[in-house]
Write a structure and sequence with these properties.
The chain is mainly alpha-helical. 62% of the residues lie in helices and 0% in strands. The longest helix is centred in the last third of the chain and has 17 residues.
Length: 190
């Protein structure tokens, strides 16, 4: 007569039986914390991140450090990605500056702060930000002010000035440029 458990009378925890595993047993798996190829895993993580959007070397390094990869693995993977051209901080900075200035209306100061947070070296960031000259920055500030002024027709000029100065300051425009542009636009609409 067979005992409780399986049809053949064995139980899951019965030792000596082949083909039966106890609860929590692993099949063909390495012990926890052991990865046979950490370089391949780190590379896969980086490629997945780069598929979503371009990233700086610093962003990729931070991601790998959060996942607790060894320094030599991080250096090896990022070095190889750099060699094949998948990491290019200068190209990233140029694209970031053009996009954020054009679509978000950010000024040079805000762009510099964002690139710094992304880990772009200061000299690379300065070159990218140089593509936004004073005239382009002033023109974008005027566009932002004109757009915002359309919704402020019922407000007093001092309230408009204060709100517009705050908006341009948050977007990284210098106080002098912001004040000059706002005064010109208020004079031309009033």
């Amino acid at each position: 007569m067979s005992g409780p458990g399986n049809r053949d009378g064995s139980t899951q925890d019965e030792p000596g039986r082949t083909g039966r595993r106890g609860r929590g047993a692993r099949r063909d798996k390495q012990p926890p914390g052991h990865d046979p190829n950490p370089v391949a895993k780190a590379k896969d993580i980086c490629l997945t991140l780069l598929t979503a959007r371009a990233r700086t070397r610093s962003e990729l390094e931070q991601s790998l450090r959060r996942k607790e990869f060894a320094d030599d693995v991080i250096d090896q993977v990022l070095g190889r990605l750099d060699e094949v051209g998948l990491i290019d901080d200068a190209a990233f900075a140029d694209a970031w500056v053009q996009s954020r200035h054009t679509y978000q209306g950010l000024g040079r100061r805000a762009l510099k702060a964002e690139l710094h947070r992304k880990g772009v070296p200061d000299e690379v960031a300065a070159e990218a930000i140089a593509s936004v000259d004073h005239e382009a920055e002033e023109q974008r500030a005027r566009e932002l002010v004109r757009k915002r002024l359309r919704a402020m027709s019922e407000l007093d000029d001092t309230v408009k000035l204060r709100r517009l100065l705050g908006m341009l300051a948050r977007k990284g425009y210098s106080q002098g440029l912001a004040y000059s542009v706002i005064k010109d636009e208020l004079n031309s609409t009033g």
